[in-house]
Design brief:
Blueprint lengths: L1 H20 L19 H9 L9 H7 L4 H13 L9 H11 L12
Keywords: Signal
Protein name: 14 kDa proline-rich protein DC2.15-like
InterPro entries: Bifun_inhib/LTP/seed_sf, Bifunc_inhib/LTP/seed_store, Hydrophob_seed_dom, Plant_LTP/defense-related
Length: about 110
C-alpha cells in the first residue's frame, strides 16, 4: 500500500510541476503578418465603396487573409486602418466589415477597432 501512495504522491508532484511551468496560449491582440502587405486591399476597398462597373479584384487582398482566423483578420485590418495603409477610411466599423465579408471572413461580434 505504501508503494501506491508514494507513486500517487510522485504523480501529483509531477503534474503540479508540469502545469506550473506550462504557458497559456498567446493572445491574439497582434496581427500575425506584416500589416504593410495589406496595402493591396486599398484597391478592393476603393472598388467596393465607389460605384464602378465590375467587381474589384479579390486575389491579392483576399489571398493574404485566407489563412487567418476571423479575429486575426479583424486585428490585421484594424492595424492597417490605424496605420493609414488602406487610405482614407471614413467609417471604420463599416469598412472593416465590408472588406472582411468580401474576403469571406466575419468580424467577430463586439470587436472594436480602437
Amino acid at each position: 500500500m505504501a508503494s501506491k501512495t508514494s507513486a500517487f504522491a510522485l504523480f501529483l508532484i509531477f503534474n503540479f510541476l508540469l502545469f506550473t511551468f506550462a504557458s497559456a496560449c498567446p493572445s491574439s491582440d497582434k496581427c500575425p503578418m506584416d500589416a504593410l502587405k495589406l496595402g493591396v486591399c486599398a484597391d478592393v476597398l476603393g472598388g467596393l465603396l465607389n460605384i464602378t462597373i465590375g467587381t474589384p479584384p479579390k486575389e491579392p487582398c483576399c489571398s493574404l487573409l485566407s489563412g487567418l482566423a476571423d479575429l486575426e483578420v479583424a486585428v490585421c485590418l484594424c492595424t492597417a486602418i490605424k496605420a493609414n495603409i488602406l487610405g482614407e477610411i471614413l467609417n471604420i466599423p463599416v469598412d472593416l466589415s465590408l472588406l472582411a465579408n468580401y474576403c469571406g471572413k466575419k468580424v467577430p461580434s463586439g470587436f472594436q477597432c480602437a
